[in-house]
Amino acid sequence: MKSNDLFKGKRILVLGLAKSGEAAARLLHKLGAFVVVNDAKPYEENEQAKELEELGIEVVCGHHPLSLLEEKLDLIVKNPGIPYSNPIIHEAIHRGLSVVTEVEIASLISEAEIVAITGSNGKTTTTTLIYEMVKNSKREPLIAGNIGTVACEVAEKAKSNQVMVLEVSSFQLIGTEQFKPKVSVFLNLFDAHLDYHGTKEEYSLAKAKITANQSKEDYLVYNIDDPTVCKIANESRASLIPFSVKQKLTKGFWIQEGSIYYNDQPIISLDSIVLPGAHNLENILAAMGAAITLGARLPQIEHVLQTFSGVEHRLQFVTEYKDRRFYNDSKATNILASQKALEAFEQPIVLLAGGLDRGNDFDELLPSLNNVKALITFGETKEKLAKTATEANVETIVYADGMEEAVLAAFEHSDAGDVILLSPACASWDQYRTFEERGRRFVDAVKNLETTLQS
């Protein structure tokens, strides 16, 4: 951790606990700041707040009183999940107070250089690939952010001979001011989280912050096939490393005649890759761009491509039962992610989908439903998804109340040789706390299917 007095003696309000808020509060307290923590959960039920109070940190629980702004504040660190429409955030910005997320704090105190990965889809897979590819190189990778340990906790212990591989969301990036990764990776941009950002333009502006402070000495690995990403890259001051799965490039990473090319030279055969799905080629090219920039060796990269078969909840193969193959893609929390999952298979698909209603329809999913023989739908969006499936001439549409019922219905409407795919196209929060919980419920239901069928 960099030794500095950046936060010493400063009065800082941490809004919202969860993992990131607690980590930020502990770190700032250790760095000599006067920290006040404000969390919506009542004090009596709030073990995190009680632990922080024992450290000498002031806690205010149960609501977000505007009176907290009456004390002179130097900074507000906001939990990414708290929307900017929240009255205390809205008023703080109106008063000209600086409001950041904990990744900003992490970036300011980290001795290790940061490679930051963002995009609407593929972040977790790409982050994991980079982490694995950089292993056994000159610098030890540390994984952080949405995929691993909170960024503050990793940054506090990181050394200059290491590199922090950080998955960052738009929720985190919007709350950055000086965030400056050595390497940024921008995968794609799709209409997502509009309930939080309001418009795609605001969502795009939040994502663009990943490269906003980069200079010529830094690098931006970007998807040249995505027009919005391309526009952001063209406005960046970083050194650009493009990748493409659609076109030949004179610089960067691209595909031709069964090989991955780097700067006009074939370096790895596509036959080396075991990760399923054409969409994962984008993630692989992006990861290679970042890894090689960070000094990863080609044999290590090839080893990863020969052995890495995916991450949990992202097109994760669960099992084969009675000649049906089950896949858990619970991390597909938007339409584009589900489109890519559906396009990864040639076999007939029984699709399990549905979840939180963010106000969008599912017309964009229509072209990807050609191979879907049955839809098992649940959650707040089940009527909308059923409407889209009807328009796509999906033969069978079934409503389910829970994951166990959905898995059983999926099996009953499948045949030998089919793929049974959980790819919800929606966030999980209407029924489950996280997409991980939803995915685990699916996996458990699949593993218990034989018992369920016999009962």
Automatic annotation (TrEMBL):
Keyword presence, Cell division: yes
Listed EC numbers: 6.3.2.9
GO biological process, one term: peptidoglycan biosynthetic process
Class of this enzyme: ligase
Principal localisation: cytoplasm
Keywords of this entry: ATP-binding, Cell cycle, Cell division, Cell shape, Cell wall biogenesis/degradation, Cytoplasm, Ligase, Nucleotide-binding, Peptidoglycan synthesis
Domain named Mur ligase C-terminal: residues: 313-426
GO-annotated cellular components: cytoplasm
Pathways involved: Cell wall biogenesis; peptidoglycan biosynthesis
Domain Mur ligase central, first and last residues per copy: 117-291
Family annotation (InterPro entries): Mur-like_cat_sf, Mur_ligase_C, Mur_ligase_C_dom_sf, Mur_ligase_cen, MurD
Reaction catalysis annotation: UDP-N-acetyl-alpha-D-muramoyl-L-alanine + D-glutamate + ATP = UDP-N-acetyl-alpha-D-muramoyl-L-alanyl-D-glutamate + ADP + phosphate + H(+)
Binding-site residues for ATP, renumbered to this chain: G119, S120, N121, G122, K123, T124, T125
Subcellular localization, as worded in the UniProt entry: Cytoplasm
TM region positions: none
UniProt GO MF annotations: ATP binding; UDP-N-acetylmuramoylalanine-D-glutamate ligase activity
Family membership noted in the UniProt record: Belongs to the MurCDEF family.
Task of the protein: Cell wall formation. Catalyzes the addition of glutamate to the nucleotide precursor UDP-N-acetylmuramoyl-L-alanine (UMA).
HAMAP family according to UniProt: MurD
Protein known as: UDP-N-acetylmuramoylalanine--D-glutamate ligase
Source organism (scientific name): Halalkalibacter okhensis
Classification lineage: Bacteria, Bacillati, Bacillota, Bacilli, Bacillales
